[in-house]
Specification:
410 residues, EC 2.8.1.7, binds 4'-deoxy-4'-aminopyridoxal-5'-phosphate, PyrdxlP-dep_Trfase_major, Aminotrans_V_PyrdxlP_BS, transferase, seven-stranded mixed sheet, PyrdxlP-dep_Trfase_small
């Protein structure tokens, strides 16, 4: 393997080369969406320039090429998360759609006696679809509490499992705090209690190695755009037997075997859950993102990101007048991807605007995790999040800018 040359990786992201005003762009909003490497942009352009055709339909060469490329990405994704077969990979438009498809598709299996457990740190995309399922079926939702240091409360979880919930919905990594759930243990506990399990991996796949067979969850979902791929494409992984029981949320062309006005017979997986023309260029772009990630020395990247996270946390604390959220008391786990903070007594939006004036891109607000913000007693917070391309200079530029904000406001 080639030696680790971080600058060479960063150089592949054209958006990071720009300046805004007098400053270099400092992009610390990867958790919202990552920047894209040139290889992803090129793959999508090539599809439109040379191979543009609909998939699975026509008998002509462009369609054959497009179909081959599209189906090859399904295999790539299966390999990427170690699914046992490619039919277990469904292309969706993103994490949100994937969770909606599961919540909708499971509805006939739920009754008013059923309980759904949801991580308090969940993103709204992993809350609202379950609330809709609860409305349709009469089932009850119970949040899994957090400990005082904002980690999932394992003892409380154990107790909740005694009521034999029908489904447990967890996040792998919290998008607001960067906290990491010990997902394999949590899934094993849920399975012992007889529950179905869904893991929201939107913030995990770009940073951690995911192995769905080892994790043993029923569903694992994520978005392409947070892992250096394009927007508009996401993944629903499901255990084959479980996917096969889902009622399709979308029906129409592509997902059928036969149609008459009397009755329609649905097709086999994966087609039965992919109605209509899919996001072909985006799927091909996602394939290029996975190839890009596969080409990198994974262990160096992990070490680089962990070091940056530690440096970022330490520099924020050094600055003074900064509160960090979601840091485990025993520091057993380094947060992944994101650091949540507030500047003493200042509104997060004011801090965000003043950082933006210095070309620092962070996200400020409730981070689509209002129940978590309530739990932490926060109206909102700022979040700095890193990616594969982030370097120490970004962190230094950010800390310097935050120091300027501090001088202006405090
Ligand atoms: N879950 C988590 C943990 C997320 O971070 C996000 C994106 N912020 C989502 C779900 C929703 O993803 P998307 O908007 O791509 O559907």
């Amino acid at each position: 393997q080639a030696p680790f040359d971080h600058q060479a990786i960063r150089d592949q992201f054209p958006a990071l080369k720009q300046t805004i005003g007098d400053h270099h762009l400092c992009y610390l909003d990867t958790a919202a969406t990552s920047q894209k490497p040139q290889a992803v942009i090129d793959a999508m352009n090539e599809y439109y320039q040379l191979n543009n055709a609909n998939v699975h339909r026509a008998a002509h060469q462009l369609s054959t090429r497009a179909t081959q490329q599209y189906e090859a990405v399904r295999q790539q994704v299966a390999h990427f998360i170690n699914a046992s077969k490619s039919q277990e990979i469904i292309f969706t438009h993103g994490t949100t759609e994937s969770i909606n498809m599961v919540a909708y598709g499971l509805t006939p299996q739920f009754t008013p006696n059923d309980i759904i457990l949801i991580d308090t740190a969940a993103h709204h995309a992993n809350i609202v679809p379950w609330q809709e399922l609860a409305k349709r079926s009469g089932a009850t939702i119970k949040p899994i509490p957090l400990t005082a240091d904002a980690q999932l409360d394992i003892k409380a979880y154990e107790q909740l499992l005694q009521a034999k919930p029908k489904l447990v919905a967890l996040c792998h990594v919290s998008n607001a705090l960067g906290t990491v759930n010990p997902i394999n243990d949590l899934i094993a506990m849920a399975k012992n209690a007889g529950a179905l399990t869904l893991v929201d991996g939107a913030q995990a796949v770009a940073h951690l190695d995911v192995d769905v067979q080892n994790t043993d969850c029923d569903f694992y979902v994520f978005s392409g755009h947070k892992m250096y791929g394009p927007t508009g494409v996401g993944i629903l992984y499901g255990r084959f037997e479980q996917l096969n029981t889902l009622t399709p949320m979308l029906t129409g062309g592509e997902m059928i075997k036969t149609v008459s006005f009397d009755r329609t017979e649905y097709g086999e997986l994966p087609n039965r859950l992919e109605a209509g023309t899919p996001a072909i260029a985006e799927v091909i772009g996602l394939g290029a993102a996975i190839s890009f990630l596969h080409g990198l020395p994974r262990e160096h990247i992990h070490a680089h990101e962990q070091k940056l996270m530690q440096y970022l946390q330490a520099q924020l604390l050094n600055l003074g007048d900064v509160s960090l959220y979601g840091i485990a008391n025993d520091k057993r786990q380094i947060n992944v991807g994101s650091v949540a903070f507030n500047l003493a007594g200042e509104h997060h939006q004011d801090v965000g605007i003043l950082l933006d004036q210095q070309a620092i891109a962070v996200r400020c607000g409730h981070h689509c995790a209002m129940p978590l913000m309530n739990e932490l007693n926060l109206a909102g917070c700022c979040r700095a999040s890193i990616g594969i391309y982030t370097n120490k200079h970004d962190i230094d530029q950010f800390i310097q800018a935050l120091n300027t904000v501090k001088e202006l406001l405090l």
